[in-house]
Amino acid sequence: MLYGIVFFIIAVASFIFAMLGLGGGMVYVPVLNWAGFDMVSVAIPLGLLLNGLNTGLVLIPFARKKMVDWKGGAVMAVTALVASPIGAMTSDKVPVATLKILFAIMVVAAAIRMIYASKMAEPDEMMSMKKRSIIGFFVGGFAGFVGGMLGLGGGFIIAPILMMMGYKTKEAAATTAFVVTFSSISGYLGHVSQGHMNWPLTIIVVIAVIIGSQLGGRYMTQKAKSKQVKVIYAIVLLVIAAKMVYGVIH
């Protein structure tokens, strides 16, 4: 029964976050923790695996529609790839309550930024490749480290920054998926090297992510509207942050 509930929630979350190119770690981690699985040894590493799987799968429809800026996201992807396992290896050295508070703060910040962005028109001009590469170097490193430590992949940091650089919503989501795939998988490997894994649970939630990501990617490329995506993103983030803070307080 418990695994069935987790399967359903993970599948729905994968559908929503596949549209955003974020993976869904900010849902996977608290849901797994709520279901009774340890935050550091199970929820965070499994959240990273599912994050990377979701964004990796949704890259397929994004790439077919030529929405991914491979060149522009390359620097960010490389620095996130390097920093994520470092963050992953520090997660067991930070108190769980502190991890949850950091998680909530990051999610609220991303939600506020997205609410603000939903009221603005799509950008007409993009920063130069040089500026994007310089900013991407530092943002990728920071997002990779924080994402690896919290089990998020860092997409909630990367997507708003790409929009600030001048990316349109759908292109930002697609390029975020590209970067997050690398940071999530490398962060997951950092956790696996420490020997933490629950294989029956892993198989169940991986199937849920495969189903959700394909449906979400198809919806994003064919039907979703930019403002609609931003509003959904912000609402989901605020609900998750509230749940995490409530969990710490009680």
UniProtKB/TrEMBL annotation:
Superkingdom to which the source organism belongs: Bacteria
InterPro entries the UniProt entry points to: TM_pro_TauE-like, TSUP/Inactive_protease-like
Q: Which residues cross the membrane?
A: 7-28, 40-60, 72-91, 97-116, 137-162, 199-219, 231-249
Q: Where in the cell is it found?
A: Cell membrane; Membrane
Q: Which organism is it from?
A: Prolixibacter denitrificans
Predominant location of this chain? membrane
* Keywords on record: Cell membrane, Membrane, Transmembrane, Transmembrane helix
The name this protein goes by in its record? Probable membrane transporter protein
